[in-house]
């Protein structure tokens, strides 16, 4: 099964590939109503499977909770989410994030920033010296992480903390740069509208959830690769 019409499949495939390479994200819409999110994921790439995460995660607004301080919703509730990359505390976070709209909410925007470009003004030695660690150790191991390594970037001011002076300095410089940098605002405003984000290049955030958007629902699948459109 193909998620695009036969006539458009090649064009859509090329467009998604081009936009991901050029801008780090691509938006597309599926016209067929009975296509599932996992079918969409398999059509455009390879879903990322890991025992610690659900392959398909439902994303809905929820209020702050002291019981879920390990999540963005638990910490920020309906407020705006700060910029971050997903699973930044993992040694190798998933490469792509696919978001598919199930229940649109036009007043809520996904915000994107080219974090790789933002880091490009830092010199290599600074990025190498500035070490961070996850706020909570993983398997009781304190792994040290860099914001840019092997052409992958990571950023999470909530769950990553600097362990050195150079890390603290870098954190405050980056925070300032984020405030003044250009951001893209993306609204998924119709059913089966999808956004794929390069999680090794862009950081993302979310605007606050107004009262008229409490029924917003997205489904998220991480992808280890995007290979263009192919049959499921
Ligand atoms: Fe996220």
Element layout with pairings:
Layout: H1 6-23, E1 25-29, H2 37-44, E2 45-47, E3 57-59, H3 72-76, E4 81-84, E5 96-103, E6 110-114, H4 115-119, H5 124-129, E7 132-134, E8 148-149, E9 152-153, E10 160-162, H6 165-180, E11 184-186, E12 193-198, E13 202-206, E14 217-226
The structure holds fe (ii) ion.
Residues 84, 86, 204 line the site of fe (ii) ion (FE2).
Oligomeric state of shown chains: single chain
Low-pLDDT windows of residues: none
Assess the beta-strand content as a share of residues.
25-35%
Name the ligand types: fe (ii) ion
The CATH superfamily bears the name: Clavaminate synthase-like
Work out the helix count. 6
Determine and state the CATH class. Alpha Beta
Largest sheet: 6 strands, antiparallel
Write the CATH fold name: Double-stranded beta-helix
The chain-level structural class is alpha+beta
Order of helical and strand elements: HEHEEHEEEHHEEEEHEEEE
Tell me the count of domains.
Answer: 1
Rounded mean pLDDT score: 91
Provide the helix percentage: 25-40%
**Shape designation:** globular
- CA-CA gap between termini: 6 Å
Global Rg: 18 Å
For the secondary structure, the number of strands is 14
Reported CATH architecture: 4-Layer Sandwich
């Amino acid at each position: 099964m193909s998620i695009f019409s036969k006539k458009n499949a090649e064009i859509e495939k090329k467009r998604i590939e081009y936009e991901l390479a050029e801008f780090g994200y691509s938006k597309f819409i599926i016209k067929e109503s009975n296509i599932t999110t996992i079918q969409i994921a398999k059509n455009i790439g390879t879903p990322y499977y890991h025992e610690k995460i659900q392959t398909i995660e439902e994303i809905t607004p929820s209020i702050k909770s002291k019981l879920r301080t390990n999540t963005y919703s638990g910490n920020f509730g309906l407020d705006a989410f700060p910029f971050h990359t997903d699973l930044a505390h993992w040694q190798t976070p998933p490469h792509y994030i696919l978001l598919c709209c199930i229940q649109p909410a036009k007043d809520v925007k996904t915000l994107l920033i080219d974090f790789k470009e933002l880091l490009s003004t830092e010199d290599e030695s600074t990025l190498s010296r500035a070490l961070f660690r996850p706020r909570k150790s993983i398997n009781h191991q304190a792994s040290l992480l860099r914001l840019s390594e092997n052409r992958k970037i990571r950023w999470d001011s909530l769950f990553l903390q600097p362990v050195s002076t150079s890390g603290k300095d870098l954190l405050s410089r980056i925070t300032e740069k984020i405030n003044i940098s250009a951001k893209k605002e993306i609204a998924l405003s119709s059913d089966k509208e999808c956004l794929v984000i390069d999680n090794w290049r862009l950081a993302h955030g979310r605007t606050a959830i107004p009262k008229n958007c409490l029924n917003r629902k997205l489904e998220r699948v991480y992808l280890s690769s995007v290979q263009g459109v192919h049959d499921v």
